[in-house]
Design brief:
Elements: E1 9-12, E2 16-21, E3 27-33, H1 35-43, E4 50-53, E5 56-57, H2 62-70, E6 80-81, E7 86-92, E8 98-102, H3 106-111, E9 128-131, H4 136-149, E10 153-156, H5 167-174, E11 179-180, H6 184-191, H7 196-206, E12 210-214, E13 220-224, E14 229-233, H8 247-258, H9 264-278, H10 285-289, H11 292-305, E15 306-311, E16 314-319
Parallel strand pairs: 1-4, 1-9, 2-7, 5-6, 9-10, 10-11, 11-12, 14-16
Antiparallel strand pairs: 2-3, 7-8, 12-13, 13-14, 15-16
Helix pairs in contact: 1-8, 8-9, 9-11
């Protein structure tokens, strides 16, 4: 409805069904996932008013729609497209690498990526918009929409598969956003380098005030362009890792939400904690089943034990001295 309240944060991307195959051969088919869902669930402890915009196929079970509605998300943000909901197989190897296989026609990925024309009236001018990995043309449409007014903090997580041959289009988008959230692989594709600090500064010269390079088990590097400071944040401790699918998306959601009330280095701790819940089960179920208060409690406990210490290559998060 046109008179619905505007959400504080909007997470835009894909909704998927994922068949996960672990290195030991364990298989878990039919996991509900998708970057928009992971991000929105992870954002809720720091920004309770969060909505999703992610088109779905006309085959999405009503039980999943009900589960999302029961979790507090409006189905207005799940426009239905003809065809099957995006369905992937995700196969992990013993080194932590993974191979994604899309069962759908590749054209379905484009049609089930949201664009500015999909925005309901109440979603058109949110204070925060996280544009997750999806089709390039969809990301361009959304970045252009949300950056026109200057009222929205815009965060961008790129899609590694489209980078080759489209480097200039991606660099043009990066120049327009406030926060850029690439992975190591995406950084290497764009810069050809593994000097993460230098790459982060290079991206910051284009326009973003914050660049976060997601490094998997090595944590994240956060570059705050306003203070010209690099922060190194490790993964949050204590997680019993089952399935790492969606960990990066969860980080992005919690980090972007926490920026509203925390400096970037603390927001990165929030992102790491959200990711630590995601990996403890299959798909988005750990986040769906975990109260936001439990996530916030793990964050506060970790934050209380840690301090930031200046080293030669930036500021590192370390255990407080006893």
């Amino acid at each position: 409805m046109a008179d619905d309240p505007t959400p504080q944060m909007l997470c835009l991307g894909n909704m998927t069904i994922d068949d996960v195959v672990l290195p030991d051969g364990t298989r878990r088919p039919g996991c509900i996932g998708g970057d928009a869902l992971y991000a929105a669930l992870a954002a809720r402890p720091w920004c309770p008013s969060v909505e999703i915009l992610a088109p779905v196929g006309d085959d999405l079970p009503a039980s999943i729609l009900k589960e999302l509605s029961d979790a507090g998300f409006s189905t207005e943000g799940l426009p239905v497209r003809p065809g099957k909901t995006l369905h992937n197989q995700v196969v992990y190897d013993t080194q932590g690498g993974r191979v994604w296989t899309l069962y759908n026609d590749p054209a379905d990925f484009d049609s089930q990526s949201p664009s500015a024309s999909d925005l309901p009236p109440s979603y058109r001018d949110p204070p925060i918009a996280l544009i997750s990995a999806m089709a390039l043309s969809s990301q361009e449409s959304l970045v252009d929409h949300f950056t026109q007014s200057g009222n929205t903090l815009v965060a961008l997580d790129p899609q590694e598969d489209y980078i080759k041959g489209n480097e200039q289009r991606l660099l043009a988008m990066i120049a327009k956003v406030d926060v850029f959230l690439p992975s190591e692989d995406e950084v290497v594709q764009l810069t050809g380098k593994t000097d993460w600090a230098a790459s982060a500064r290079l991206f910051a010269t284009l326009g973003p005030r914050i660049v976060v390079i997601k490094r998997g088990a090595a944590g994240v590097l956060v570059h705050d362009a306003q203070s010209d400071t690099d922060y190194h944040i490790p993964p949050a401790p204590g997680a019993l890792v089952v399935d790492t699918t969606g960990a990066g998306d969860s980080f992005c959601g919690a980090f972007t939400a926490a920026l509203e009330t925390h400096p970037p280095q603390i927001a990165a701790m929030a992102g790491a904690v959200a990711a630590s819940f995601t990996v403890e089960g299959y798909g988005a179920m750990p986040l769906l089943n975990t109260p936001a208060t439990d996530i916030a409690e793990r964050f506060e406990n970790w934050r209380a034990r840690m301090t930031f210490r200046l080293q030669s290559n930036g500021v590192h998060l370390k255990e407080c001295d006893a």
